[in-house]
Amino acid sequence: MTTATKRKPSVRKSATEDEKFVVRFPKGLRPQIAEAAKQAHRSMNAEIIIRMGRTLELEDEVFRLQRVIDQLLATNDEPSRPAARAAQEIHA
Description:
Elements: H1 29-39, H2 44-75, H3 82-91
């Protein structure tokens, strides 16, 4: 008589599996994130991921805008123009 062997289902980790990273929050930050997540109907994890992504995107945009301002200031010899004045105020 043959005996059937029980096999555990194999768990395969895909190459796209999310990475885990432990973060320590300063006192008071966790409740703020929890509230923001609740308001947006998201999990805390989703809220953190979305906000981190937005921060990186905004940082790239700030650098891009800074380059534009620098170019405007370098090519504009007439500081009386409103755009040049605004750029100088932002640049200062």
